[in-house]
Amino acid sequence: MSWLNKDGLRVYFGAEAVQYRDPRGEAQGAGATRTIDIIVDLAKTTAAVPYVFDNAIFPANSYIQSVAGSVLVAVAGATTVDLGTQYYDGTEYDYNGLINAMGSLTTTGEKTATAGAQVGTTLASPGRLTVTTAGQATAGKVSLRVQLFVPAAAPAVVWHGA
Questions:
Q1: pLDDT tens readout for residues 24-63
Q2: pLDDT tens string 74-95
Q3: Would residue 90 count as lying in a domain?
């Protein structure tokens, strides 16, 4: 059971709160470049149901520069992994918009991932990262990285008159 509080943040309770723990990191790059790294234990996901990273967020007007994926622990059960996005209200933005069907999950190492439709575009609305699998994973961990550019907010223009 979860709900959105008045700040637009999703609040989880009980077993659901444990499912959505967030082992991710974010690093500030040069200027307004950010890198979001997440590690996903796929055995804790449910096939075809987006696994939501509530703290892996991207602000409005983020330009998605690149994505990358690697397998840390060989995956059993799932055949592909998608990295996508979700609006703050929990509705789908694009569940495979960042990585579309990363495969070869039974061997470790960096993978050639097909960039989704959102890579190379500016996302007008803010949201969260999601991971979805094809097939139920019983084991395996993947590392996913998103590099984005977040423009600074335009300074307020104050007219004092003449």
A1: 455 555 568 888 999 999 999 998 899 998 888 888 899 9
A2: 999 999 999 999 998 889 999 9
A3: yes
Range of the domain at 125: 23-149
| Residue type, position 101, single letter | A
Query: Which DSSP string do the residues of 95-115 spell out, in sequence order?
Result: EEEEEEEE--TTS-EEE---B
pTM to 2 decimal places: 0.76
Q: Does residue 8 lie within any of the structural domains?
A: no
Domain count across the chain: 1
In a domain, 14, yes or no: no
Instruction: Please check whether residue 124 is in contact with residue 58, taking contact to mean a CB–CB distance below 8 angstroms.
Output: no
Q: What CATH code is carried by the domain that includes residue 80?
A: 2.60.120
Name the residue among 34, 3, 31, 27 with its Cα closest to residue 17: 3
Alpha-helical segments (H) within the chain = 14-19
